[in-house]
């Protein structure tokens, strides 16, 4: 009797302990997953409605004459013949700001080197830097000659050397990023409409160009249209805190979730989508200044939905390992390490080490160990291990 009682007690005790353990794990993970769970759950369930049924575009559609002010800027630097007479696989715009000259140099000498791409990958990729007009921030002098004119002179000089800057005369500020996006679509439409893909990326991104090129060649050979790929934000809620960089007023956007869109760090669309988005921008109110959300609204209007690619990063950074390099497309947040990463990620040993049955098995195991954690990692998702 006493024995049975004890056994039951022990059993119950074990159950209680397990429950507690599970609960605490859930609570810890929950916290990690999200700080404002409620707004996310709400907006996530709402996204289905947003993506399928709501005419968000109605509230953003304005007369053509009024929409013109979002694209009616003059080119300060331009290269109208950049694409002429060439079979361009990818037109890649890097959103850069006037003072980020070091980042542009790093990109030109690593993944964005057009001559290298042509020679070793056998395709034409055009890498252009999208800039607005420089402005001086009185708190942070950037160069010795800190006047607007001084900045512009340096940019003209840089562009004479490299011939890869596209610049219009709107101020290059965070809140003008949507104008920069519109500039890219308009530039492609009038000067490079025959490029098969358009990519837009931040200037602190790393692009694994060989992987991206072979992937896009494959997509192109399959004749895929309506193509939009990157790291997808599904049912993201607008941020209503006034102190946030991404603050969104109700006047500007009144729904509780954004349509699906890809993180602005880097995404690719096919030329048919680029053309439709261009058409949409002609009648859109582009005062919504978060450029990737604005892209989502345009795409929603024309009926294009984004697809996730597990090796495109959003905010996250790739982990340093050859098995990751084997599959990576983009990784965000690289400035100092870009040369080292470029060398390591494109080393012939990377492909050799991950080929064959054993190489693939080994790499799957490594990727699982690196990416599949019970807590949130700001890098590629666990699913990427099985790609
Ligand atoms: C955007 O650029 C325009 C044109 O240069 C300028 O008038 C405006 O102040 C800029 N907006 C922001 C928010 O910086
Ligand atoms: C565009 O949107 C802004 C912000 O919501 C609004 O203030 C402005 O009146 C709109 N423009 C037009 C032409 O409707
Ligand atoms: C807005 O979306 C609706 C429904 O998807 C579509 O019928 C309409 O043509 C779109 N309007 C514009 C201006 O794109």
UniProtKB/TrEMBL annotation:
Keyword check for Oxidoreductase: no
Enzyme class: transferase
Listed pathway(s): Protein modification; protein glycosylation
Entry-linked InterPro entries: Glyco_trans_31
Keywords, comma-separated and alphabetical: Glycoprotein, Glycosyltransferase, Golgi apparatus, Membrane, Signal, Signal-anchor, Transferase, Transmembrane, Transmembrane helix
EC number annotated for this UniProt entry: 2.4.1.-
Stretch forming the signal peptide: 1-24
Entry's family note: Belongs to the glycosyltransferase 31 family.
Protein name from the UniProt record: Hexosyltransferase
